[in-house]
Design a protein that fits this description.
With about 270 residues, the chain is an alpha/beta fold. It contains 6 helices and 7 strands. The chain has one domain: Alpha-Beta Horseshoe (pyruvate-formate lyase- activating enzyme).
């Protein structure tokens, strides 16, 4: 369940739990909710009325095996957490499972953990005490589907981390990050209050359209402009797919924009 993934920008997925609550338009056609219901789990909704699915020790031991394999091969592996939940959701079950995540991350130095949230405003108060300027093997990210949610980037950039990234998937409208990036360069970080010039502080962007029945179309010209802008300012871009009924397709995206880059981690 955790090892195999069709997500092109990671090597493994690991879920601290299953279940969440929708918070913005990007959540409308949530694949994780659909899959949960298909497997008989009604776990999407408010904390007051909805449980989350948790897992036993065998599940939590899987990343230890991935770490051993990566070390043996001499090649780091990426782990996306959590594809079926939000690590920073305000839910008592998620709070408890999240506390188990940090020791696991510390125990797996050959894994780069891609921690993605739609709730970046909750990151600062839910990090481990030894976070400092960020764990060397944690990438912190947030999801932005349109300009109306660009404030999430400002929240993300207040948190010190080795890599900051955005998942603009599904991208539902035009997106301009330049003003937010310029303003964030002189914003005190949320943990130390230190102000420093942090221009270029966004290290990676994922771009993708929605797939499946009833998908919403990704605006092509605006998406191409966004990709070109990110590349121009030196931010690596991973284009996952165009919008359409089937995933993993280049579709309308021309070759020069269909890039699949990763951030520099050395």
């Amino acid at each position: 369940m955790s090892k195999e993934t069709g997500i092109g920008w990671t090597d493994h997925t690991f879920n601290i739990a299953w279940g969440c609550m929708k918070v913005s338009p990007g959540c409308a056609h949530c694949y994780a909710e659909t899959f949960s219901k298909r497997t008989g789990h009604d776990i999407w909704g408010p904390a007051e009325t909805t449980a989350r699915r948790t897992f036993g020790q065998k599940h939590w031991d899987e990343p230890l095996a991935w770490n051993r394999a990566a070390k043996k091969a001499g090649v780091r592996a990426r782990v996306f957490t959590s594809s079926m939940a939000d690590v920073f959701e305000d839910h008592p079950t998620i709070d408890a499972e999240r506390e188990k995540l940090w020791p696991l991350i510390r125990a797996t130095p050959w894994l780069d953990w891609q921690v993605l949230t739609k709730r970046p405003e909750r990151i600062a108060t839910n990090l481990p005490n030894d976070w400092g300027y960020g764990y060397d093997n944690v990438w912190l990210g947030t999801s932005i589907e349109s300009q109306g949610y660009v404030g999430r980037l400002a929240e993300l950039l207040r948190i010190p981390a080795r890599i900051h990234f955005l998942s603009c998937e599904p991208l539902l409208g035009p997106l301009d990050l330049l003003t937010t990036l310029a303003e964030a360069a002189f914003v005190p970080d949320a943990l130390t209050g230190t102000i420093s010039n942090r221009a270029g502080f966004l290290e990676w962007v994922i771009v993708g359209g929605e797939s499946g029945p009833g998908h919403r179309e990704m605006p092509l010209n605006e998406t191409l402009d966004f990709i070109a802008t990110m590349l121009t300012i030196g931010c690596p871009v991973f284009v996952k797919q165009d919008s359409g009924p089937k995933p993993g397709k280049q579709g309308r995206i021309p070759d020069e924009h269909y890039v699949q880059q990763f951030p520099t981690t050395t």
